[in-house]
Write a structure and sequence with these properties.
Strand content: 15-25%
Helix content: 25-40%
Shape: globular
Order of helices and strands: HEHEHEHEHEEE
Strand order of the largest sheet: 3-2-1-4-5-7-6
Distance between the termini: 35 Å
Largest sheet: 7 strands, mixed
Length: about 180
């Protein structure tokens, strides 16, 4: 896995061993960032269930001013630390080694611009995370939530938590669902 574009372009990132994390493929990451490229410069970015931190690091490389990385597992947490050191983004990053529920309360921003969530697909964490996000004062009508999810997952449930689907982008094996506050 590597950084696709920006100031850290072409730097190789480490990823955790095993099947517990699914790093977003480079071509999917490139497509995603091409779709949101105008929102990245100057933004505050949150990478939930961050794994190796590749998505948040890509945002920093492309001009985000601050990124929060939330990862509770030890090995992925170490990978994030290594990758931030490799890319020299340590000063612009806050890494929270906590459960997402607790970590969301530890973000103290007036407004967050983009929140990316990519939980384990079968763990039932989408609902729990959206319930928490609807209560956070930094999630405004301007905040863009992007969920990476399996192709067959229906996101109509998001409306019950105060979010509407504004766009979906399907790939061969998964999709990105773009959400905003209702």
């Amino acid at each position: 896995m590597r950084v696709i574009a920006g100031s850290a372009r072409r730097l190789v990132l480490v990823t955790p061993d095993g099947e517990n994390t699914r790093p977003t493929q480079d071509r999917i990451k490139e497509t995603l960032f091409n779709m949101i490229q105008n929102e990245i410069p100057g933004c505050v970015f949150v990478d939930l269930f961050a794994g190796s931190g590749g998505i948040g690091i890509e945002a920093l490389s492309r001009g985000a001013v601050k990124a929060y990385f939330v990862e509770n597992a030890a090995e992925p947490y170490k990978c994030i630390q290594t990758n931030l050191h490799t890319t020299r983004f340590e000063e612009a990053a806050t890494v929270l080694k906590q459960d997402v529920t607790l970590a969301l309360r530890g973000i103290h921003e007036k407004e967050v611009d983009i929140i990316y969530l990519d939980p384990p697909y079968e763990a039932g964490l989408y609902d729990r995370t959206l319930v928490q996000l609807q209560e956070m004062p930094y999630v405004t009508e301007n905040t863009l939530l992007i969920a990476e999810a399996p192709l067959d997952m229906d996101f109509d449930f998001a409306e019950a938590f105060g979010f509407k689907i504004v766009k979906e982008k399907e790939y061969k094996t998964n999709k990105h669902v773009f959400l905003k506050r209702v």
